[in-house]
Amino acid sequence: MKKRLFYILGILVILSGLMGPIIYSDKLARRQRPLNPVPALSGSTENGSALRDDAGSGTERDLKKNTGSGAEKGSVKNANSPGTEKERVTGTSLPGILPAGQSPGGQPPENATGVHLWVTQDFGRSSMYAETVGFRPGDAALDILNNNLNIETAHGGTFVNSINGVASGYTGKSGGERRKKDWFYWVNGVMASVGADQFVPGTGDVIWWDYHDWSTTMFVPAVIGAYPEPFLHGYNRQNRGAVILYADGYEQQAQKIKRGLEKLHVEPVSAAPFSEEGITKRTGPAIVVGPWTDLKQSEILRGINERGVKNGLYVKFSDDGFDLLTSSGQTAGTCGKDCGAIVAVGTGSGKGDVLWLVTGVDRQGLENAVAVLSERPLEIKYCFGAAIDSGKVIPLPVQ
Question: Would you kindly state where each structural domain of the chain is located, as residue ranges?
Fold first, then answer.
């Protein structure tokens, strides 16, 4: 009996010696392989060039991991990524114009649909990554990021700590090396209210990650650089369309913006005279149009102007000119005669009823802002907000 027992134990020892390396290798492989691999889309990239059939492999995309976001004390859900850093890229196409079930090139992807994945730094000033990528229904924003970029997570895997080597300056740091710089993300121009592991996007959505300093402004609820979002798809597929509220005598400018939105397939779009009730009772995105000398009559808009950078508004409106602000709220310069501005504010993360202001120091300044939005919208791509001085777009906040 004892001999048989020793014999059985001997066999078990031999088997464990053989199986141990196999089990370990499998665990290691699973850790290193990307989550939820999806077929690459063929078609065009955000810059207008053709997407490779082997997109998702090769030197530029070899490293892939997944991440989410969150932070201490109400911090945010975001991710960051290094790589070949470029100057501000305007691209040659607008986001969001993507027929359901089709790639940008018009060919049905294999079991995948497309979203626009953007990764930038310093309030959109430098672009690290911008492509239309494949994803499967049910994939979260974190899965999509993981499938295309190299990421690291913290706080239990729900906080995107690093993208392509660009890491949080705050998490895991202490003392003098701690910096309030992290990754944040927006969906269709609206800051997400949940971690990237929980948000499930739809076809054509713009998922935009930006790495920036949050010393002064923790949350920027709305940004303009994903236009025609949020008007095209809305946040979480709700609150689509636009209501344009125009100051007395500026219906023509409102109609010009309306035609521009409709040309980009936004619906419904309506225009009506400005009223405070139009702002307070809106159920979706709204655009207020008029020179600041008229808009300042509104108590609501004066309040937005006074809160400034606390609302993610990096411009200070006045009758004589617009003060252009840095991310810390300091005035870096003033834009005077013929100056215009396009900015967005929101009531909180995940709130799709954002409010855009298209305004000017004077009538010509307003005309300049309307012309950019309706005729040259690519010029505000990646902008958090924008001033228009002598016809030239100045991204906000300024550096």
Answer: 43-213, 242-396
With tokens 């088997």, the residue in question is: 15
Q: Residues 310, 217: contact at Cβ < 8 Å? A: yes
Q: What is the pLDDT of residues 385-395, one digit of tens each?
A: 999 999 999 99
- Residue 184 corresponds to which tokens in the numbers above? 């944040």
Does position 236 have pLDDT exceeding 50, yes or no? Answer: yes
> The domain 43-213 is classified under which CATH number: 2.30.30.280, 2.170.130.30, 2.120.10.30, 3.90.1170.20?
2.170.130.30
| pLDDT tens-digit map of 30-51 | 222 233 333 334 333 344 332 2
pTM greater than 0.85 (yes/no)? no
Rg (CA), the chain: 24
